[in-house]
Design a protein that fits this description.
alpha/beta, 41% helix
Amino acid sequence: MLILNYSHPLTPAQSAQLEALTGEVITEVREIPTQLDTEAPFGPQAAALAEAAGLTPAQWQTEALLVVPPALNFAAAVLLAELHGRMGYFPPIVRLRPVAGALPPRYEVAEIINLQALRDAARSRRG
């Protein structure tokens, strides 16, 4: 499984958690620096972030991908729209959470969210 990480670098413990949750071996983690210009439109910046992953059109549609989205909510939303357009579906994403009481602050994997399954379920609730 290939992880596209648009957030802070993953620790070995977080990587182990992801492998345990998915039952898949991580073949590569691509750490993609994400610093958006809040004074410029996010659409072109999201396209550039997707390009920075270095995947071909075929890879976008066939690779087993897991995405760690940017922490900035607007950037995450626009990037997911861009990735959906390239992949044909919403990618699963990783949600991290702070470890309670940890000093210095640490983060752990909270869950893997299957966005496509959520989207498909929501369609049944359309009127």
